[in-house]
UniProtKB/TrEMBL annotation:
GO cellular component: membrane
Chain segments annotated as transmembrane: 68-87, 94-117, 188-206, 213-231, 237-255
Record-given protein name: Sphingolipid delta 4 desaturase
Disordered as annotated region, ranges: 1-32
Gene from which this protein is expressed: desA
Keyword vocabulary terms for this entry: Membrane, Transmembrane, Transmembrane helix
Originating organism: Heterostelium pallidum (strain ATCC 26659 / Pp 5 / PN500) (Cellular slime mold)
GO BP, sorted A to Z: ceramide biosynthetic process
GO molecular function: sphingolipid delta-4 desaturase activity
UniProt lineage: Eukaryota, Amoebozoa, Evosea, Eumycetozoa, Dictyostelia
Domain Sphingolipid delta4-desaturase N-terminal: 34-73
Amino acid sequence: MGKGKGASTKERVRYPSKSGVPPLDGTGPMEKYDPKDEYIRVEAVQQHWTRRKLISQKYPEVLNFPTYHTPTAFWVVALVSALMITAKMMENASFLTILLVSYVFGATVSHALWVLIHELTHDLVFKEGTMNSIFLLIADLPHLIPAGVSFRHYHRLHHSFLNETYTDPDVPIPYENSILGHSPLGKAIWFCFYSIVIALRSAFYPLKDQSPFGIWMVLNYICNIAFTYLMSQWVGTWGMVYLILSSLMSVGFLMHPLGARWIAEHFAVTQSEQETYSTYGIINTLGFNIGYHNEHHDFVRVPWIYLPRLTSIASEYYTKGLRYHTSYWRVLYEFLNQDDFTFNSRVVRNPKQRVD
C-alpha cells in the first residue's frame, strides 16, 4: 500500500514529464489494454489546463461557445416524467418484466439524469445558479436517495484536485484495492455496489474548507423523501422496485455496463501519462455526450451539446491525439479479466501543499 502515498525514485524516473503534455502510448481507439497494479505518478499540473491553453491559442473560436444551454431543462422534465410513467406501468408487472425494463430502459434514463445533474453541477443549463440548483433537485428525484447536492460538492473537488491522492474523491482509497482489487469477484462486488463505495469513500476525503451541508442539501432530502412517499402511494411496491433497480443499475448494479463509465474516464489503461480517456460511440447519443470526457475537463464551461464540435475543431488534440474507448462493455471486460487492472491503475499526483 506504500505506492498509494509515496513516490519512489524509480517511479519518478520512469514517468519524468513535467510539461503538462502527457507522453502517450499511441493514439486512436484502444486496441490493447495494458494497465499495471501501480500508480503512475506525475509531477505536472493537470494536462487539461495545458491542453486548454494550447487549443485556445490555436483555435480561439472555441472560447466563443455559449456557457449554458437552457433547452437541457426540457430533458430533465422529460426524463423524470418518463421514469414516473414507466414506474406506474410496472405497478402490476412480473418481477422478470421489471428487471428487464429496468436494465434496458430505466437504467439508461436514470444514467442520463446523472449526466444532466453533472451539467447542472457546472451551471451549464441556466445563467442563474439558483435555477441550476432547482433543476438539479428535480433531476435527482427518481434516484430516491438524495445524492445530487453531495455529488455537486465532491465533483467540483474532483475537477479542482484531479487525480491528487487523498484529495480527489474519484481516486480509490488504498483499502478498496487491498480488499477488493485483486480478484474478478472482488472487482465485481466493487463495481456492483459502487454507489455505496463512493458514499463510504467520501468520508476519507477532506472538505477543503467547504462543506456539502447547507440549505440545498436540506431541500434535497426533503424533496426526495416527499417524492419517494408520494410515488410509493401512486405506483405501489413493484413500481418502487423498478425505480430502485433503475437507479442502482445506472451506476453498475448487476454488472450494468453503464457503470463502466467511472472506470473508463480516469483509470490508466495504458502505460502512459494520459490521465483521462474519452469514449466515442452510442453512449453519447444516450447520455448527452458524457463520453467526451477529455473535452469536458479541458473546457469545463462548454455545455454537452457543443462538445462534438469542439472535438471536430481540435481533432489533433482528441481523436487524433489521444487514446480513447469505444465500448463500455470492453472496458468492463478488461477490468474484470486482467489481474493487473486494479484500483491502483491510475495516473496520480501528490496533493498540493497548503500554505498557511
